[in-house]
Design brief:
This protein is of the alpha/beta class and 328 residues long. It folds into two domains: 2-172 and 226-250, Rossmann fold (3-Layer(aba) Sandwich); 191-222 and 254-327, UDP-galactose 4-epimerase, domain 1 (Alpha-Beta Complex). Helix content is 38%, strand content 16%. The protein is built from ten helices and 14 strands. It has helices spanning 11-22, 55-62, 79-84, 86-106, 141-160, 191-199, 227-240, 258-269, 293-299, 308-321, and strands at 2-6, 26-30, 46-48, 69-72, 111-115, 163-169, 171-173, 206-209, 221-222, 224-226, 246-250, 256-257, 275-278, 287-288. Helix 5 (141-160) links the parallel strand 5 and strand 6 (163-169). Helix 4 runs parallel beside helix 5 (141-160), helix 6 (191-199) crosses helix 8 and helix 8 crosses helix 10. The longest helix has 21 residues, at 86-106. It starts with a strand and ends in a 7-residue tail after the last helix. Pathway: Carbohydrate metabolism; galactose metabolism. It catalyses: UDP-alpha-D-glucose = UDP-alpha-D-galactose. Keywords: Carbohydrate metabolism, Isomerase, NAD. This is UDP-glucose 4-epimerase.
């Protein structure tokens, strides 16, 4: 098969690219490298450095088909930053998706898998884990932009028969178990790599945003899903969207608090994590844990990495071998 992956030089996208290549597929990555890394593209995979904001350049890539499917990961993705720059986030994420969707329709692409987000559920009224049909109420412009893209895909299906699969996932974490890819954000904003770096003395004390949430220890609770499991879930959606569009939550179904992450990092690294309390960040809900039972039932997907210590160990190995990320 032949697939186009936008944002394939980024954290989650690069692990999807590895999974596709490992299965023997031909992969072309479309990425502007604003946050991704050329070094994350494995041998045998073509990189086209294109910004999806450029409709003409996007069309030139998509026209070079045929494609058995498109995976869309490229986006601005920082919740806190979206609260400071809401119009920029909504404009960029929706416009780039619109350009890609338009190109797919015009050039006869029949299937697209969209990397959506659990930020759609900014204030769920139901108890966790959050089911697929939970109230959608984005708590940030980032989440709002993803919702707008999902709605666009709905109409692209209704009118143009572009089938789509949307995966609403919670906290992507981990690194490739074989050490071929990892997490290298600049600046880094994700809790696990920040906590590891604090433990190793590579950064100042970790700031814990919010210690007064209505949880057992006062810190946020998140469902951490390993990127290898996440890549597998994306690929499994391809068979589901042959004749219909689908929307799924994806996660392990178990949440860990920020303080539990700190203790896990201390166990894995053997180092104490220096940390200090900081005010809550706007847009952060107290708890996000996924009910992925529908995805499991329909696709047979089962996460292989469910133990937090194991997930963190893969990150620790990557960051130990690559203290400067892909620059090493």
């Amino acid at each position: 098969m032949r697939y186009l992956v936008t944002g394939g030089a980024g954290f989650v996208g690069s692990h999807l690219v590895l999974a596709l290549r490992d299965r023997g597929h031909e992969v072309v990555v479309l990425d502007n490298l604003s946050t991704g890394h050329h070094q994350a593209i494995p041998d045998g995979v073509t990189l086209r450095q294109v910004d999806l904001m450029d409709l003409s350049a996007t069309q030139k890539c998509v026209v070079d088909g045929p494609w058995d499917g498109v995976f869309h990961f490229a986006a601005l993705s920082l919740v806190g930053d979206s609260m400071r720059n809401p119009l920029h986030y909504i404009h960029y994420n929706t416009q780039t998706a619109l350009n890609l969707i338009q190109a797919c329709i015009e050039h006869n692409v029949r299937k697209i898998v969209f990397s959506s987000t659990a930020a759609l559920f900014g204030g769920p009224e139901r108890s966790t884990p959050i089911p697929d049909d939970a109230l959608i109420q984005p708590g940030s412009p980032y989440g709002e932009s993803k919702l707008m893209i999902e709605r666009t895909l709905y109409w692209a299906d209704q009118i143009h028969q572009l089938r789509s699969g949307c995966l609403r996932y919670f906290n992507a974490a981990g690194s490739d178990p074989q050490g071929r890819a990892g997490e290298d954000h600049r600046p880094e904003t994700h809790l696990i790599p920040l906590t590891i770096d604090a433990a190793l003395g590579r950064r100042p004390a970790l700031q814990l945003f919010g210690t007064d949430y209505p949880t057992a220890d006062g810190s946020c609770i998140r469902d951490y899903i390993h990127v290898t499991d996440l890549a597998d879930a994306h690929i499994r959606l391809l068979d589901q969207i042959d004749n219909r569009s689908v929307r799924y939550n994806v996660g392990t179904g178990h949440g860990y608090s920020n303080l539990e992450v700190i203790r896990s990092v201390e166990r894995v690294t053997g180092h104490t994590v220096p940390w200090e309390a900081a005010p809550r960040r706007a847009g952060d809900p107290a708890m996000l844990v996924a009910d992925a039972s529908t995805l499991r039932r329909d696709t047979g997907w089962t996460p292989q990495f469910t133990d937090l210590d194991v997930i963190i160990e893969t990150v620790f190995k990557w960051r130990s071998a690559h203290p400067h990320g892909y620059s090493d």
